[in-house]
Amino acid sequence: MEIPENVWTSLQERLGYSDEELSKFKENANNQRVLKCAPELMAKTIVAEVVYSHGCNSQHKVGDKFYMDGSGNLLSKLCPSRMCVYAVSALRPLVYAAHELFYNGVDPNKMVFNHCGCVDVGLECSGWGRVVMEVRMEDRATEKT
């Protein structure tokens, strides 16, 4: 699939690239591969659901969900009103892994290690609390986004 010129122009404007930078970007086959997957990825929502919570100072509860678009951008209007930076930052490796699987034609929901937790070690280990989340990718049409 050839990437239309208007996509390159739009990307150049979005990222603020010079012509030279865009040329360098286009030379990287991985960037082209990602762009070819973009329309399908934009039809997805990444969901991180709290599956365990105890002693969380930000009050995250089991069932709370953090929603991200297919690119991994938080959809803050759909997320809890307070989002703990330590819980959100724990999502980074799993969102990255979901993208890698997706770009390689593998269903991200087949990820074996799809849970992560905030950096607080919990009361038992001299912390305050603990939050564990499960990450999955869903079709956007089935979610609130």
Would you mind describing this structure in some detail?
- This is TIGR04076 family protein.
- Helix content is 34%, strand content 20%.
- The chain folds into 2 domains: 5-41, no CATH class; 44-142, no CATH class.
- The model has no long low-confidence stretch (mean pLDDT 93).
- It is elongated, with a radius of gyration of 18 Å.
- It is α+β, with helices and mostly antiparallel strands and 145 residues long.
- Strands 2-1-4-3 form a 4-stranded antiparallel β-sheet.
- The protein contains 5 helices and 4 strands.
Low-confidence stretches at least 5 residues in length (pLDDT < 50)? none
SSE pattern, N- to C-terminal: HHHEEHHEE
Helix content: 25-40%
| Rg calculated over all Cα atoms | 18 Å
Tell me, what's the shape? elongated
> Termini distance?
28 Å
Would you tell me the overall average pLDDT? 93
